[in-house]
Amino acid sequence: MDAVVITAATSAHADLIGRAARAGLPVFCEKPIALDLAGTLQAITEVETAGTVLQMGFQRRFDAGYKGAREAVRSGRLGRLHTVRAMSSDAEPPPAGYLAQSGGLYRDSLIHDFDILRWVTGREITEVYAAGSDAGPAVFRELGDVDTGAALLTLDDGTLATLTATRLNGAGYDVRMELAGERDQIVVGLDDRTPIASTEPTGPPAADKPWTGFLERFGPAYEAELNEFVEVVRGERANPCDGREALQALLAAEACELSRRERRPVRPAELMSGATAAYT
Asked: Into which CATH architecture does domain 60-218 fall?
């Protein structure tokens, strides 16, 4: 055996990562490492102690549109970035059995937006304020989850970001990011399959074949990230997304969940300090 690819249920990730690390094997694992900070820190420690590789599966980093956005921001094309708007909308909810193990909307769905926000902008999330609604199917209320969520994030350079997600977007699967700067504005995920219709007389028509789900929308990105994992295993490139990167995305998700429940702003750094103290 040369390497391990983990696409099991989230609850199994941390244990499998640890077992592979102790066997000296490089690992590719779908997000997240674990559903809590303690499990995440333990798995990262095992990997770092063993000196092995852990590449996390945040596939949007390998999507052509997000790569173009990162290049535009880093090149200065947009000027000073002041606003980011991102959204992740599923056409329909996943099965109840999956929802029960998912960790909730922020840890399961919006965690992708937290990661790609950091990756595209190169900035850190310093504060979040989140809200959620469980007004849809009863299963969300029964699980203490929400079917729709929103978050206002402040980045370390003052940039403001709004992130929204829903499990109930009947028009189709819709994942987009808009970035606005003092010089220009760009969008990721706007094409002839974006499930949105304009009410303007001269606006574009609705998509004939809207995206149906993440496997279809991000198929090439999933292939690209696994190809890069093979190159990492061969020693041909550096790890493009390690466990520490995944930890930052989970911190933002944890902060949003706490903010939603307590109705207050939360700084991810507070949670990290507490988790580190508890773990050590």
From this structure: 2-Layer Sandwich (3.30)
pLDDT of residue 138: 97
Q: Please enumerate in sequence order all residues whose Cβ is within 8 A of that of 109, keeping only pairs 6 or more positions apart, or say none.
A: 88, 90, 165, 167
Where exactly are the structural domains of the chain?
4-59+221-241+267-279, 60-218
Backbone angles phi, psi at 234, to 5 degrees: -75, -10
Q: Percentage of the chain surpassing pLDDT 70? A: 98
Beta bridge partners of 87: 164, 176
Report the pLDDT value the prediction gives residue 273, as an integer from 0 to 100.
Answer: 80
Closest CA to 25 of 63, 54, 56, 57: 54
Structure tokens at 3: 């390497």
Return left, alpha or beta for 120; rule: phi > 0 is left, psi -120 to 50 is alpha, else beta: alpha
How far apart are alpha carbons 93 and 39 in whole angstroms? 27
Q: Is the pLDDT of residue 276 over 90?
A: no
Three-state secondary structure readout of the chain: CCCEEECCCHHHHHHHHHHHHHCCCCEEEECCCCCCHHHHHHHHHHHHHHCCCEEEECHHHHCHHHHHHHHHHHHCCCCCEEEEEEEEECCCCCCHHHHHHHCCHHHHCHHHHHHHHHHHHCCCEEEEEEEEECCCCHHHHHHCCCCEEEEEEEECCCCEEEEEEECCCCCCCEEEEEEEECCCEEEECCCCCCCCCCCCCCCCCCCCCCCCCHHHHCHHHHHHHHHHHHHHHCCCCCCCCCHHHHHHHHHHHHHHHHHHHHCCCECHHHHHHHHHHHHC
| Cα gap 134→66, rounded to integer Å | 30
Instruction: Give the span between the Cα atoms of 121 and 188, in whole angstroms.
Output: 13
CATH number of 4-59+221-241+267-279: 3.40.50.720
